[in-house]
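Long-time lurker, finally posting.

We've been working with DUF4878 domain-containing protein (Ornithinibacillus bavariensis) and I want a structural starting point before designing mutants. I don't trust myself to interpret raw outputs, so I'm hoping someone here can both generate the structure tokens and explain anything notable. Sequence follows.
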Amino acid sequence: MVIRNYQKRFLILFLIVMIIGVLAVVLFFTFVKSPSSKAKAAVEEFYAYEQDGNFAESWKMFHPFMKERLEKNQYIEDRVQALFNDNGVHTFSFTVDDPELIKNWQVDEDSEPIEEVYKTEVRQFFEGIFGNFEIVQSVYVTSLDGEWTVLWDYNESEDFLKMDEN
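Top reply, 14 upvotes:
Generated this for you. Predicted structure of DUF4878 domain-containing protein:
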């Protein structure tokens, strides 16, 4: 009898420890995100603002380099014109690929390298008066003072240089 009580207690204790362990793992993965998943979430937030036409909020998510390059009011005006008005589009859908870590990336050839950025591909799908179309863009995000900021690539692409030669 003593052995059976001991075995029951051990089994109950073992089950309690296992349940606590499983809960700890679930909570850890629920509340502690990897930098890569935080980067992807930031890009999704940025494009959700754009999708809603809330370009002032998406502009706030830009890295300081982007804010210098694109003045807020001009960005809002140009973005609405380019994405919606010129093509008769009211909204769009989008997808964001899983990001990859890149070290010492430069926004353009003259800028200082950023130690760590995450690169992802964003696909925007539009239905407009001129038909359906898609924009695919590489988007970069980096953590700056604890906030994830968005960057676009301004380096000259090899494809563009080849087109320029023709």
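Before you design anything, note these points.
The longest strand covers residues 114-128.
The chain has two domains: 1-32, 35-165.
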